[in-house]
Amino acid sequence: NPIRESKAKRKIIRAGRRGGKTVIAATICVDKFLEGLRPLYATPTSDQLETWWFEVKRALAEPIDAGIFKKNETEHTIEREGTKNHIKGKTAWNADMLRGDYSDFLVLDEYQLMNEDTWEVVGAPMLLDNDGDAMFIYTPPSLHSRSVSKALSPQWSQIVTLSGLLSISFSMFSS
């Protein structure tokens, strides 16, 4: 999968509804967790969080059942006890919802629904001290929608669609 294999520090995934965005996010978060990192998945909707959480639990079911990892259903976390290694999912629609967390790999799913300061006020600084990576996922507006979308902004960095197309413009990440 080109998204999983990409070494880009910042990935942006644009795909339509039912395009598998949340499932690929869960898969990549599990990969990062198994590498010893601390992935943090954030989305503004509880439905998306539950989809992600279902996929993560399914992928890690065997080591959870064997007692290798400890699962917390309330906090949507799975951790390797005695270490700082854990995977976490949460709802977040603004910067304040991300405050206090730590991550090596941050996923902002349904980013078009989040407050625009979520990334620059908390997301980017969260990753600075450990040179962490980020993935932004969004659904473009439908042809029938007149809503404002970040999909139309010229500031987007890298767009990797599920079909593997790539477009790069680094202006989003320059200050």
From TrEMBL:
Entry protein name: Terminase
InterPro entries: P-loop_NTPase
Lineage of the species this protein comes from: unclassified sequences, metagenomes, ecological metagenomes
Provenance organism: marine sediment metagenome
